[in-house]
Amino acid sequence: GKVVPFPVQRLLVEPLLQRQLQAPWQEGELDFLRGRFVAVEIPDLGVRWWLTLGMRGITMVYGRLQADATLRGELSVFIALAQQQQDPDTLFFRRQLSITGDTELALHLKNLLYRIQWLPEIAAVATRLQPISDWLAPSPAGRASNRSPHRPPSS
After folding, report:
1. What sign results for the dihedral spanned by CA atoms 57, 60, 63, 65?
2. Which of 8, 46, 67, 132 is the most buried (most CB within 10 A)?
């Protein structure tokens, strides 16, 4: 990411994803990821995560790998998806969520992410990231020059 190095992102995000996806993993619902890589891009956070199926479930992998499929959307789109506020197909047709590469693989992941019941702490983390996302996003001319490059605005 632009601000947080990948090892720190992985340390924070991977255990949450593994806990969240524990039941689907144990039930074989993540088998479609075995030997495959799906990139999840959240441009307003400046992150791109490569996900695959590892020995402990979902695993974040570092590197500039060739993704089999990519899901791309702003943080608010993934929050709406996780909180089931928006249907994933609606987000896709409104071009708020884009899918490239192996469409079947990406659609499988998108539908799984929408179908599962998300843990409250994941929603809490995502909601806390929104101000950072807003801070990192391109802003109207002039506003960016008044912002410190080292810290988000206080709230």
Report:
1. positive
2. 67
